[in-house]
Amino acid sequence: MCTICGWLYAEDRGLPEEDIRPGTHWDDVPEDFVCPECGAGEDWFQQLRIGD
Length: 52
Hints:
Elements: no helix or strand
């Protein structure tokens, strides 16, 4: 989750428009990834576990 705007990256959906395939784990997202909503870099993301 982006801690600036709250946008959620869902590993099961990926982000195909950014060439990140469904099933891509957060650890495998490119280092230069930026939030598609606010442009924040990967350092501004916090990993959440939902539905355990």
